[in-house]
Amino acid sequence: MRVRDALLGKPIPDSEAESESLGPAEAVPVLGLDALASAAYGPEAALAVLVALGAAGVRFIVPITAAIVVLLLLVQTSYRHTISAYPDGGGSYTVAKENLGRGASLLAAASLSVDYVLNVAVAISAGVGALVSAMPVLHRHTLGLCLALLVLLTFANLRGLRTTGAAFMVPTYAFVACLGVAIAVGVARLVAAGGHPAPVVAPSALRPAVEAAGAWVILRAFASGCTAMTGVEAVSNAVPVFREPAQRNAERTLSIIIGILVFLLAGIAILARAYGIGATDPERPGYQSVLSQVVAAVFGRGVVYDVSIASIMTVLCLSANTSFADFPRLCRSLALDGYLPEAFAHAGRRLVYSTGILFLSATAAALLVVFRGVTERLVPLFAVGAFAAFTLSQAGMVRHWHRRRRDRGARRALWINGAGAVATAVTLVVVLASKLLEGAWITVLVIPALILVFRRTSARYEEAARACDADAALDVTDLAPPIAVVPVKRLDALTFKALRFALGISPRVHAVQVLAAGHAHEDLSTRWADAVERPCRAAGLPPPELAVLRSRYRQVVDPLLGYVHRLAAEDRSRFIAVLVPELVEARWYHYLLFSHTATLLKMMLLFRGGPQVVVVNAPWYLDAPRRRRARRGRRGVVPLAAHTAER
Amino acid sequence: MRVRDALLGKPIPDSEAESESLGPAEAVPVLGLDALASAAYGPEAALAVLVALGAAGVRFIVPITAAIVVLLLLVQTSYRHTISAYPDGGGSYTVAKENLGRGASLLAAASLSVDYVLNVAVAISAGVGALVSAMPVLHRHTLGLCLALLVLLTFANLRGLRTTGAAFMVPTYAFVACLGVAIAVGVARLVAAGGHPAPVVAPSALRPAVEAAGAWVILRAFASGCTAMTGVEAVSNAVPVFREPAQRNAERTLSIIIGILVFLLAGIAILARAYGIGATDPERPGYQSVLSQVVAAVFGRGVVYDVSIASIMTVLCLSANTSFADFPRLCRSLALDGYLPEAFAHAGRRLVYSTGILFLSATAAALLVVFRGVTERLVPLFAVGAFAAFTLSQAGMVRHWHRRRRDRGARRALWINGAGAVATAVTLVVVLASKLLEGAWITVLVIPALILVFRRTSARYEEAARACDADAALDVTDLAPPIAVVPVKRLDALTFKALRFALGISPRVHAVQVLAAGHAHEDLSTRWADAVERPCRAAGLPPPELAVLRSRYRQVVDPLLGYVHRLAAEDRSRFIAVLVPELVEARWYHYLLFSHTATLLKMMLLFRGGPQVVVVNAPWYLDAPRRRRARRGRRGVVPLAAHTAER
């Protein structure tokens, strides 16, 4: 108990549930971090494809980034309309559910789930990439560092990270400031040098071209670069957390985020081209991330470089953290709708959805291990989910406006969301086509598999609900005491306790002894009359009947189960209550001393007993009563009063 | 079930318990194998110490073997008297228990246990050593081969190896024949060559001396060589399995075994000296076991060599198997006396003591892994347990004869057993002193630790028996129906079933609903009157009372436990029966869908509920009744009839 408290913190009562209320200045870090952090891996992903073209390839980064910026602005306009239509939060799952029906909503949910998991893996691997760029000696520990960061994030989130603006503001604004200054200074030098500035630290040499420039390689670079757009949907999900006027604050926040992102992407593209910065192989020592090369080219490797790399790394790790905030919430929505196991819907001791957090962490860890913590390998899997969710959300909005097409402004909104839907759908097709063989096929297989899981879960819950369906009122006809069955081994205190309980609930008690060779127990039939029957008759009670079964296979459970089945068959209308006495030990290792027939018997009775059988478990405490009472007082009765307020 | 049957075989009924009846010809392999196999590692262990003296060291093998042979003959005479005194089997544990009391018997038991475990590890590692001598390419797989052999032996023993003479006779007599012929031919050539025979295949070169000859190194070589004596006690344990006249047959068997062993030891020593054969380093490639060198020197590496090595390997593996037969039986005796957990006393589905087998296998595996399968490293741990058991057994016999000192022949027997006890005790001291730092300290620590475990276990059983102690007859005063507590979540079929059972066993039923934030359950108090109270009143039953508890920490179990404790405190004389409904699923993975509150609640009620609380578990089957009934028919009722014969 203590260890758990130390690691995870003390339980938090419901009354302390966090209530946020953000203005744009705090909202940009909290909600925009994921989008802004994408600037750290989007351009790099595009350059990693262009590197095949050698030095000539770097030139294409500018038009590719321009295309991404156009798409980004379109998506922004489109999401502004989503914000105004869903002031309570319009995530892709919600919008698709309300407008496009169950199938589309599950597709959106599956896409988003994949996206969230990949975001964790990509952000962490990119953050570690920044770190090993600055400290090449750590290169061979890439995967270990990734997993260590993941474990850290998992624990922080299980404790319940207070995601207040402050924690996010410093690194986010440091990141924007460092990159912003680097871009401004770099562009100024570029202009001063007439287009050919000299880098302070020269970027890594580009490999010679292995491919000719063509539409296919440009498309693939664009598709990879589109990972820069992930995370922009966050604001539309989160309208309720804004200060009033919530809707306007949300729109303003979205504009600021997109504005900064566009500035960063454009600046990185221009400087990469000017300095001839390409991607280097992340799986070889000497790896330098693109941002590391850009900052080093502008400032050299001094204090500013170190601060920049530190802020990039922090922002990337925090952007992994947004998945930890959003994925469990999505799982909770799915669980409340019956598409995921109940466990995802329950807030744990620290008011966080622990099941979702652990699940996210486990799957992200698996991805990191399989792809050895290399961002470049993860990126092909990444954009598919995000663009599928974008497209479904926009398409849902088209339907939404179509229903309200007589309202003022609805027609214009319909066109804008429609354009957004088409643009993201086209991008999705491009991403799919160009990345399918590089790994997107995994995403393409996982998404329908997830949908299948959602549907099967839901079907099973419905089946279970039907099986548990009951009349409106309790049926109290034909109530009769159960037939009590008491398995006995010896005539000891456990047996007597069980017999007393049995005699208290039913006038018909059967005692059963199973004699198995190798178990040195005496046949009780000789002592039964004196020890049990006589006192019962004296008290005017019908005495329990003893049956002695002999087992040829040294098994105790099967013969008992057979006896119970025969009793059940005799009278199908009555419950059979089987009393299983249980030794309760003070120390876990004492359980090694006793045979676990009781546990096995309970399980078999529950699983194979049939609907009439009810298992009655009577504990017998082996340790000193004094110690037990003291312990119960400490952890049982007293704190309970504090936990509950009885009506 | 099928997989288990395939791996372990179908269950065996009690009636097929094996009954053996051996004459000397079959008994020599069955009971003597362990002792004879020692010839394969005893001389090697002595030579491994002498190797420090270089070529000069090999000469000492002859006097050392002579000392061991003298000791062996003394022990033989001593054991003949044990056989005549304990015709029902006089193992060290039994003899010590009957003559020296509890302390000595536990010391004997602990020593024997250690000895059995080490015998498995040493025999397997020596067998694999023989194999890699013949096939040097396998050298780097030494540990893997050891563990594979161990797994094979474990499975064979869990299935229940029929230890008939035949299975043992062929390899044992092949082993004796091969070595016997090699020794005879070798000695003949030795005589013919006037003491300096030329080897067919030259033995491995001896390393130069690193130590001067002295008493200490000779003592250490003697102590290592004493492992050749392990296993000679087997006959004295097993008198009842002999054909009549059992005692005489046993004595004759013991004489034959010792005779062969003396012949083998002497022959190996003479040939090792004549050919200048020393031990080679088993941890380096190029390792050659001493027997491999001897056979190769006499016959070269032809067919005879291959057959000899195969018989040595088989005999060593089978000698590991004698531990699998004897250790579980020793554990069973200890368990029946209350010194080990009950599980060791129960014969499993194949009539073998599975717990003992698995325990032996696990500890032997641990030893093999720690000592990397190298016989030489295991030997220092080995002889301590064996000689401690020898000494205790002889000392027990001294006491035995002392009590009967007026009988005819008792005085002479007393002297012989006394001499045996002194000789083995002196050897034990030599072994301890010379091997302590090389690893015997492990044995010296483990033996008292085991004794502690035996004593603690016994004390705990006595405590438990006292705690379960009961009067001679059932007390039926103050019998009253329990207070029934029904935790409810919703008004569904599970709840109604629980309420029906509760109303059937008690007029006082409390229903409890715990409302925790985040669990979307409606407050039942509004529907209670209509759904439950009204039908009860209409039927003239006292209606169940509903309490709705609110939980501030989203926990369900603690508030319920508090409620139960308060009810229990109100009336200390009545049982509180808590009804826990339980969904029973057809497929294990469906359990992932439901929260495990019921399981947790049951456990907490059992562990912290206190002596009044009884847990009633009512199953609710979710799958189709047809399928369930079919399954129950297949595995439940029908085979049960075959398993049991009811009185």
UniProtKB/TrEMBL annotation, chains A, B:
Keywords: Membrane, Transmembrane, Transmembrane helix. Its main location: membrane. Residues 1-21 are annotated as: Disordered. Signal peptide: none annotated. The chain crosses the membrane at residues 45-75, 116-135, 141-158, 170-192, 212-232, 253-275, 295-320, 351-372, 378-401, 413-433, 439-457. It is found in: Membrane. Gene3D superfamilies: Amino acid/polyamine transporter I. The keyword ATP-binding does not apply. It is a multi-pass membrane protein. InterPro entries: AA/rel_permease1 (IPR002293), APC_K+_Transporter (IPR053153). PANTHER family: POTASSIUM TRANSPORTER KIMA (PTHR47704). This is Amino acid permease. It comes from Anaeromyxobacter oryzae.
